[in-house]
Amino acid sequence: MFDEVAERYDITNDILSMGQDRRWRKKLVEALAVKPGEYVLDLAAGTGVSTVPFHRAGATAVACDFSLGMLQVGKRRNPELSFVAGDGMNLPFADNSFDAVTISFGLRNIVEPETGLAEMLRVTKPGGRLAVMEFSDPTFKPFNVIYNEYLMRALPPVARAVSSNPDAYVYLAESIRAWPNQDGLAAMIGEVGWQDVKYRNLTGGIVAIHHAWKAGQSG
Questions:
Q1: Is the pTM value of this prediction over 0.85?
Q2: What's the start-to-end Cα distance of the chain, in Å?
Q3: pLDDT, tens digit, for every residue of 48-106?
Q4: What is d(CA 10, CA 3) in angstroms, rounded to the nearest whole number?
Q5: Three-state secondary structure readout of 89-140
Q6: 19 phi and psi, to 5 degrees?
């Protein structure tokens, strides 16, 4: 499915989010507090749009995704990045490899998200950080109703107009509605061993960034 939408994926997301996705990604970079020289894994990176800011911050950033189609488009557009094909439930990296690991709008697409979070923990160095950016539940209840109506009624026809595979966006809308709320995801992250899990709501809770760290000392 993601192979089929790869070519127009980024522009479709920009339109469907009304340009908010760019602002959300800036907040993610701030949350992860990447330093020059650090080794960063961007999981479910797609075409690498989410990876570029970490590269620009001076990190060695690896864009990892399950979709070969996404990786091919990404390598063509961002040849300066390192792209690696990988399964989120069985990452092709050694234990304690990365200073920071992040995933944007991809955790809910992993068949077993708890396994994915455990794998992220495994490949993170002791003392390393995690940042998960995902769609979540708007905190203002009347807006929550409007938002869910948009997801199921407005999103599919907009996707039909701009995407190469609109059915994929029907799936995405359904997966967003079925996803745990902010506290539910925080509990999931903590249950696999991440420490001090906290989250920050963006755009009234449409999106939340969860961050945590791995026990132990780096270096």
A1: no
A2: 40
A3: 988 999 999 999 999 999 888 889 988 988 999 999 999 999 999 999 999 999 998 88
A4: 13
A5: CECCCCCCCEEEEEEECCHHHCCCHHHHHHHHHHHEEEEEEEEEEEECCCCC
A6: 80, 0
Please give the Cα distance from 68 to 28 (Å, whole number). 25
Find the mean pLDDT for residues 208-215: 96
In tens, the pLDDT along 3-60 reads 455 444 554 455 455 456 667 778 888 889 999 999 999 999 988 988 999 999 999 9
Alpha carbon distance 60, 211 (integer Å)? 20
Q: What pLDDT sits at residue 138? A: 77
DSSP letter, residue 78: -
Which tokens hold the place of 89?
């439930």
CA distance 174 to 170: 6
Query: What is the 3-state composition of the chain as percent helix, strand, coil, each rounded to the nearest 5?
Result: 45, 25, 30
Q: Count the Cβ atoms, other than its own, within 10 Å of residue 93.
A: 19
Q: What is the DSSP letter of 153?
A: I
Query: Residue 145, Cα to own-chain centre: how many angstroms?
Result: 24
